[in-house]
Design a protein that fits this description.
The structure holds two protein chains of two kinds. By secondary structure, chain A is of the alpha/beta class. Helices cover 48% and strands 14% of the residues of chain A. Chain A has 19 helices and 16 strands. Chain A has helices at residues 14-26, 37-46, 63-73, 88-96, 109-134, 150-162, 179-188, 207-215, 232-235, 251-263, 289-294, 300-306, 322-338, 347-355, 361-375, 394-401, 404-418, 423-430, 434-444, and strands at residues 6-10, 30-34, 51-55, 78-83, 101-104, 169-172, 197-201, 216-217, 229-230, 240-244, 265-267, 274-276, 280-285, 309-312, 344-345, 380-381. In chain A, the strands form five sheets. In chain A, strands 2-1-3-4-5 form a five-stranded parallel sheet, with helices on both faces. Chain A has a five-stranded parallel sheet with strand order 7-10-13-6-14. In chain A, β4, α4 (88-96) and β5 (101-104) form a beta-alpha-beta unit. The longest helix of chain A is centred in the N-terminal third of the chain and has 26 residues, at 109-134. Chain B has one domain (4-169): 3-Layer(aba) Sandwich (Collagenase (Catalytic Domain)), CATH 3.40.390.10. Helices cover 34% and strands 17% of the residues of chain B. Chain B has six helices and eight strands, in the order βαβββαββββαααα. Chain B has helices at 14-25, 54-66, 109-112, 117-135, 154-159, 166-171; strands at 4-8, 32-34, 45-46, 51-53, 71-76, 80-81, 90-92, 98-102. In chain B, strands 2-1-5-8-7 form a five-stranded mixed sheet, sandwiched between helices. In chain B, strands 3-4-6 form a three-stranded mixed sheet. In chain B, α1 crosses α4 (117-135). The relative contact order of chain B is 0.15. Classes of the chains: A alpha/beta, B alpha/beta. Chains A and B meet through α1, α5, β7 and β9 of A and α3 and α5 of B.
Chain lengths: 450, 174
């Protein structure tokens, strides 16, 4: 269990002490407060503090003198000075005397929290590195990244390999296969996990808003820009930026992205200051980027910049072993949230799900189970609860009424037709070898249509 | 089951509440009751800062929660502060009954001049769930996908999740 940090707030103003006490309690820290230097020193003698927030101007011993005294007791103490007056000279003096940082009242909560988090993060790093080494054999993954098929195990191995590095990752896969979950798993297993993974849905971003969205804007940058605003790249500082649907972006945006990914620097709209941000890039697409490059729709240089380490997520129909696992996970999720008592799924429903093509992949399966939980009136999900027009599905009705050999014949015919009678691809889909497929074609007297 | 009373105070746009509540109910598994209030908040106004002192409003609201067995969350449109900070999105009693959320800085117009009602609703739901979480005893969560992650700027409200993580969820008892 993570150790709670102790923080000491030293300020002569009761209202400041109480405000900071309440604020840090919400963060789960152990807080003590002191109204002057004497009280602070008494508390300091009773035990170590991870961090001390110290008001510079106090009656009696000043904050600056107390800082020097505290540093004598504990040279590693992290002390952040607070004052109502910002002046360069006092800031420089404070930092020279060993203060970690310096902040002025009224405090921007964002600024205070980031300074405190950064300070404590550094303190934690050593212990964290030890923990990381200990847990290297297991990867953390989002709850809903599910699958025990050999394809998913291979993906977990790839996540395990690439996560601790800062390598750019390109995730490929059809819509609904869980590309964002894989990105999340990479983020959660990296040293960046305490910083955010910021998702940019490139497909949903109108080009007119893109610059401001990605790079932020300064106050007054355009009509209505009343406040400074950080962009997605700035928010991803320390963490990961996930560029989803990267194949949809315009050429102009591709140029901008390439520049920022290469330099890790940008300016906010309407600003002149160069902002640096330390982010890792994970991109994803359901499009064939190589084809787009050939067609001149995607820049080759950006493609090579992104395509450093590729993870391909197979469609759900190619990992049928995972369907029952996923279906049960979603069943549990929705029965719990809808407070319904459904214990499982009928064999008929499961068999149907195993054979269904799931063109919308895991997302379609989840929607199907959610819908089934809504309409289900039994203790088990029935076939008719699933959102497919089974009764109108001639293929399914036919299958139900015929012998096993007839089912096999029809299924092989269907797969051959889907693959334009390409034997090797059909054999792959059927998970049999080509010789067996030829034998079955011969057995059932199947012929390629003229 | 714990009932949640949502009290919009001096709300100029009651229709907005009708849009926020269904979104809130998608996540909040507790009965919700709307109780609009009209009351003078000038006692909490700081002329110097042109903002309202949120702790004072919270204290003022305590009697409203006395007869309630559940939680009482007030929604205001005014800009809130606590003296040491430039602003706050809201405030809550940790392990208490009363909390407060301001919509003032949740409007996209506030930052970019662009009206985005959908975004406002999502941000408001997040902040309501966040402050209620404190009422239920939750502290800030390190998981960025959890609504209990601290949000120190509007950008952080936008990137954090809209639901409690499994760990926080397990600690809430409705």
């Amino acid at each position: 269990m993570e150790k709670k940090h102790r923080i000491l707030v030293v300020d002569d103003e009761e209202i400041v002490r109480q405000s900071l006490l309440a604020w840090f309690k919400e963060d789960g820290y152990d807080i003590d407060t002191a109204e002057n230097a004497d009280a602070a020193l008494r508390l300091f003698e009773t035990g170590k503090y991870s961090l001390i927030l110290l008001d510079i101007k106090m009656p009696g011993m000043s904050g600056m003198d107390l800082l020097i005294k505290l540093k004598e007791y504990d040279p590693n103490a992290i002390i952040i000075l607070i004052t109502a007056y910002a002046s360069v000279s006092s800031a420089v003096k404070a930092l020279k005397s060993g203060a970690y940082d310096y902040i002025t009242k009224p405090i921007d909560p964002d600024e205070l929290s980031h300074i405190v988090e950064k300070a404590l993060y550094q303190k934690n790093l050593e212990a964290e590195n030890v923990k990381l080494k200990e847990s290297i054999d297991e990867i953390a993954k989002p709850d809903n990244l599910i699958g025990e098929s050999h394809q998913m195990k291979e993906i977990y191995n790839l996540i395990h390999t690439v996560a601790p590095t800062d390598t750019t990752v390109l995730i490929l896969g059809e819509s609904g296969t869980g590309k964002e979950l894989v990105a999340k798993a990479i983020h959660l297993n990296s040293k960046r996990k305490y910083f955010p993974m910021v998702t940019v849905n490139c497909g949903a971003l109108p080009e007119t808003l893109l610059e401001s969205e990605l790079f932020g804007h300064e106050k007054g940058a355009f009509t209505g820009a009343h406040y400074r605003r950080k962009g997605k790249f700035e928010m991803a500082n320390g963490g990961t930026i996930f560029l989803d649907e990267i194949g949809t972006i315009s050429n102009k945006v591709q140029v901008e992205l390439l520049r920022v990914i290469e330099t890790k620097q940008f300016t906010r709209v309407g600003g002149s200051e160069t902002i640096s941000s330390d982010f890792r890039v994970i991109a994803a697409t359901n499009e064939n980027l190589e084809e787009l490059v050939k067609e001149g729709k995607f820049r080759e240089d950006l493609y090579y910049r992104l395509n450093v380490f590729t993870i391909h997520i197979p469609p759900l129909r190619e990992r049928v072993d995972d369907i029952p696992l996923l279906a049960n996970y979603f069943l549990k999720k929705y029965t719990s949230s809808m407070n319904k008592k459904i214990t499982g799924m009928s064999d008929e429903a499961i068999n149907f799900m195993l054979k269904y093509k799931w063109h919308g992949n895991v997302r379609e399966l989840e929607n199907a189970i959610e819908r089934a939980v809504v309409v289900c009136r039994n203790d088990k999900i029935q076939l008719e609860d699933l959102p497919f027009k089974v009764s109108n599905n001639k293929q399914w009705n036919d299958v139900e009424d015929k012998s096993l050999s007839e089912v096999e014949k029809r299924h092989i015919t269907l797969v051959l037709k889907e693959n334009n009678w390409t034997i090797s691809k059909s054999a792959d889909d059927l998970k049999i070898d080509r010789v067996t497929l030829y034998n079955k074609i011969k057995k059932y007297g199947l012929r390629k249509p003229e | 089951m714990t009932e949640i009373t949502i009290a919009p105070i001096n709300f100029s746009n009651p229709e907005l509440i009708d849009k926020i509540i269904p979104e809130l109910k998608k996540i909040l598994a507790a009965p919700t009751n709307i109780n609009p209030l009209t009351t003078d908040l000038s006692f909490a106004y700081s002329v110097e800062r042109r903002q309202y002192y949120s702790t004072k409003i919270l204290q003022y609201l305590l009697p409203y929660s006395e007869k309630l067995t559940g939680k009482f969350l007030a929604l205001v449109e005014v800009d809130l502060y606590i003296p040491v900070f430039t602003y706050v999105f809201g405030e809550a009693q940790l392990n208490g009954k009363v909390s407060l959320v301001s919509l003032c800085r949740l409007h996209e117009e506030f930052y970019s001049g662009i009206t985005d009602e959908r975004l406002l609703i999502i941000r408001t739901v997040k902040e309501i769930l966040h402050e209620l979480g404190h009422n239920f005893g939750l502290i800030h969560c390190k998981d960025w996908d959890c609504v209990m992650h601290s949000s120190l700027g509007i950008e952080e409200v936008d990137i954090k999740g809209i639901d409690y993580c499994e760990s926080c969820k397990s600690k809430i008892s409705f």
